[in-house]
Every structure is written in structure tokens, then in C-alpha cells.
Amino acid sequence: MPDLALLVEIADYYNVDMREIMNGERKSESMNREEKETLLCAAEYANSEKKLLLKRVRLISIIGAVTMVLAFAMTALAGGSSLPMYSYTKGVCFGISFGSILCSIFYTTGVLEWLRQRKHTPSKKLVLLVCAVLFSVLFVLAFAESFR
After folding, report:
1. Of 44, 50, 115, 141, which is most buried, counting CB atoms within 10 Å of its CB?
2. CB-based contacts of 11: which residues, under 8 Å, 6+ apart?
3. What are phi and psi of 62, to 5 degrees?
4. Does the predicted model carry a pTM greater than 0.70?
5. What is the spatial distance between Cα 109 and Cα 53, in angstroms, rounded to a whole number?
6. Closest by CA position to 141, among listed 72, 86, 88, 74
7. Each residue's pLDDT tens digit, 78-136
8. Helix, strand, or coil (residue 48)
9. SS3 (DSSP) at 38
10. Residue 15 CA to chain centroid, in angstroms?
């Protein structure tokens, strides 16, 4: 189904009611002005939400792409370097790029919104706890690996 803004324009062009387009049946009354303004406001709000989502996903993806290119460049240029800070930075770059990919997937599939809506449930607290523990373990392992 097309966007709401496009449906409003179609209804206005053909001088039909929005309900006629949605239901697929013809009625004798035409769309009144207040209904049209309400639907245009709803369409504008939906478009602004889409733009905000796209802007956030774009930013997360750019950060992920830049850190992935940086990590691969560091891997290619490393040669036989075993400096602890160098390998730690390379690991952090790979971690940020992987995390941004996961975040983009979670954001676009609605998982993050689902977690936000379930504010005070034990499952959200459990997911946050597991993520915090996993992040801490990975951080300690990356830090320990850099000093080998």
C-alpha cells in the first residue's frame, strides 16, 4: 500500500473519500477538509519518523564502515607488529564495526523499539544484564590479548 501522503493526494485528485480507497468501495460523499488535514498531518508525522530512523541508521552504518575500513587497514599494515596498544585498537575497531552492524539490524527490525516498549519487565533487565556481562568479558579478553 502506498504512503499515507500519496493516498491523500490520490483521494483529492479523484475527489473520493480516503475510506473509499482503503475499503475499495465507492461512496457518495467526498472527503471533507478536516479529514484531509488530519490525514496530511498523520502522513507528515510518519514521514518525519521515517527520516529520523533513516538518519540514525545511516549514522550507525557510517561509523561501522569507517571503523571496519580502519581495522582492515591496520591488519594489512601491521606486518609482524605485536605492540599491545596496536592490536587492542585494531580489536576495538573490529568490535565497533560488528556492534554497529548488529545495532543497525536491531534498529531496522524493531527489536530496539520492542525493548523500549517493555520498560519494566524482567526480560529487558535480563537482556541488559547479559549484554553488560558479555561486553565486560569481551573487553577484558581484548585487553588481556593485547598484552600477550
Report:
1. 115
2. 17, 18, 20, 21, 31, 36
3. -65, -45
4. no
5. 11
6. 88
7. 766 667 777 778 888 888 888 888 888 888 887 777 777 766 566 667 777 777 787 77
8. helix
9. helix
10. 38
Confidence of residue 25 (pLDDT cuts 50, 70, 90): low
Q: What angle do CA 129, 139, 63 make, to 5 degrees?
A: 90
CA 128 to chain CA centroid, Å, is 18
Q: Say if CB 31 and CB 11 are below 8 A apart.
A: yes
- Which long-range contacts (C-beta less than 8 Å, at least 24 apart) are formed by 2-5? 3/43, 3/46, 3/47, 4/39, 4/42, 4/43, 4/46, 5/40, 5/43, 5/44, 5/46, 5/47
Question: Could you state, in order of their start, the residue ranges of all structural domains in the chain?
Answer: 52-145
What's the gap between Cα 45 and its chain centre? 18
40 with 5: CB under 8 angstroms? Answer: yes
Query: In angstroms, rounded to a whole number, what is the distance separating the alpha carbons of residues 49 and 45?
Result: 6
Give yes or no for residue 27 having a pLDDT over 60.
no
